[in-house]
Amino acid sequence: MTPRQTVHHNRLMPDQLIVQAIEFESHIGVTDDESHVRQPMGVDLELDYPQDAFFSAADSDDISKAVDYAKAVQLVVQIGTNGKYRLIERLAEKIAHALFAEFAISGLRLWVRKLKPPLKDVHDSVGVRLTRTRADVLREPKPAAFLLDSVRFLQKGTVLDVAAGRGRNALHLASLGFAVDAVDRDEHALQELAEFAKQRQLNNISIQTINLEHEAPTAALDNEQYNDRYEDVLVFFYLYRPLFPALIKALKPGGVLVYETFLIDNHFHYRHPRRKDFCLEHNELLRLAEGLRVLHYEEGQYDGPSSRSDKPFTARLIAQKG
User: Could you tell me the pTM of the whole model?
Assistant: First the structure.
């Protein structure tokens, strides 16, 4: 063992990149007077290198192996100037999430402050400090319970995950050896999915940003590129009825559709979703998937998205293309 290795593996503090006194103007404040006028803000960063990453950058003298402080500053300023925030806490968390999504850092310390707070008795600044690890911020989502029950029905091959979000289902199937095409309109959620896949060294997930409700389904999925392409199609907690013909065409013969989303009962019990047309009527999912062979169907109250404590009322379908 070299002296460098001895020191490195026994150090108590991680190697860090430190950036002090990033300054920009932001719309931030609870009162109208604060939120309507840009205020000077300051941010200090301490970004932790993962184990061995600092030595890799130092030995190679390669910027691609380092945490690029110019990009980190640009990211902080972009988030601070392009949004409107009521609380400094909200801005700080947004910056933390963005830094973890963009850079392979293991932790950070962040000081975000108003440089000229509207308080006559404060002559310096007010702000918040936070300390976060990658595990704190990028908590990998768990796969849907219904997907875990449905894996035995799936045809091994390529899967289309529609409205994939942060990738709770895509990541699980990729870990089982499926190739997954994940589509969603939320770029930030897909960035987190990409980060999770990178952490787990899952190279069998491809990601595409598609707004299926602003682009005609024929332009988004229902074309020769997607027709008869997938062994399996997944849709969880997303409902856009005009998309069903495209979903069915995307399946190969023998391919399987797995679908779960809210029933109208959930709207009446929990007022979620707020709009009734985002919920299925009873047996409607069977009608929308007409032409497929039903392998399993149920309606009831089940474990749902992990972000909700209530058990939602959903319809669940597993159906196969002939």
Answer: 0.60
CATH of 145-320, one of 3.40.640.10, 3.40.50.10810, 3.40.50.150, 3.90.1150.10: 3.40.50.150
Alpha-carbon dihedral sign for residues 147, 148, 152, 158: positive
Token pair, residue 220, equals: 């988004």
- Selection from 71, 64, 61 nearest residue 102 by Cα: 71
Is 47 within 8 Å of 16 (Cβ atoms)?
yes
Q: Exposure of 90 by Cβ count < 10 A (0-12 exposed, 13-18 middle, 19+ buried)? A: middle
For residue 274, what are the contacts with CB-CB under 8 A and spacing of at least 6?
A: 267
C-beta separation of 292 from 267 below 8 A: no
Share of the chain above pLDDT 70, in %: 90
Q: Which of 7-11, 50-54, 211-215 has the lowest mean pLDDT?
A: 7-11
